[in-house]
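Deliverable D4.2, example record:
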Amino acid sequence: MFADTAKIIIKSGKGGNGHVSFRREKYVPDGGPDGGDGGKGGDVIFEVDESLNTLNDYRHKRKFAAQAGEEGGKKNCHGKKGADLVLKVPAGTIIRDAATNQVIADMSGDNKRQVILKGGKGGLGNQHFATSTMQAPKYAQPGQEAIELEVRLELKVIADVGLVGFPNVGKSTFLSRVTNAQPKIANYHFTTLNPNLGVVDMGWGDGFVIADIPGLIEGASEGIGLGHEFLKHVERCKLLIHMVDAASVEGRDPIADIKAINQELAEFNPELLKKPQVIAANKIDAFYENENETIAALRAEFEKDGLKVYPISAVSGQGVKELISDVHQMLGEMDDTPIVYEQEYFPELHIFETEAFTAAYDEKANEYVVEGPKIEKMLGYTNIESEKGFLFFQKFLREQGILKELEALGIQDGDTVRMYGLSFDYYK
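Output generated by the structure prediction step:
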């Protein structure tokens, strides 16, 4: 079975605890603290595997966890880092938070590998807590907790061209003629169950990918049949070939069919109707007479709206070359940047939601000080030296209401803000 959705639970590794121990050697009965730090927990990483084209690996196993970091040891020994968990997925897989349906990552385009959950930082050993007044600390820092999250994996076919239309209008036959795909072809009155991909070879290494989007039915946008499962694949395509049975072999009205399918596209996602479309008026080999009347009616109805009509026969090949050539030319004039969905959900942000923070003005230091467990955790999970990390840091401050609180205290551009040893200048 073609598997294009799966719901799983992923968990990063807990950080190893810091260790409490003291140096004990001959002639050194009261040595200082030498407890080592705990190891970092493993990350959960998603990686594109070009050999995969389904999510079958995630249909029968629900829980996946990275390894925890080891506890630190005596003699300043650092705990071993927990092994990362690398989950392989097909290109085009979208990872969403199961609760909100927001995008965490889109494994498309140049995004071949992404850390989704970071492992917890290892705790500090007791050697770090020695002071002039506390020379034998008997405590160490625990490792940061793991992050657990339920996610929904959704595979959206990546193709340049989507082939849409009602069942049994000849899409599979057309795909088998113009590409290297070998779809099952028969007189199915419901639909092909799997999206079929094929490459149209234009010669000299040039070509494009076309997807036979499974046949739609009225009510698809409301989830009737497998509507939602099919319509989502259209979102990746740059251009649509809308195929109809121009000969009305089964008594269908081709004009009504095109309007019905476009209505389903609009109700599912209005942006889909903004994609360029062409109409493939198929089965002209089945015309007996007055074939030009049907084609003329289609052209009169749709070409005024910019939808060009191509009379074709997927069986005999008549008109197919012109259609493919024009589609190839249209694609060449379009932006070739792949459609990639932006990240909407940041798992690290949501582990702090129930924890408070404080913001205050330190007159003596002339600084604004922000503290709280959520701040400390955020800094532990985020590398603000990187551009992406710093953007996340700014988003965190805004969404947690920290910037709003600082503004209420009267902070001005150029003032200094301190957070657990990190200082930065505030600019609105």
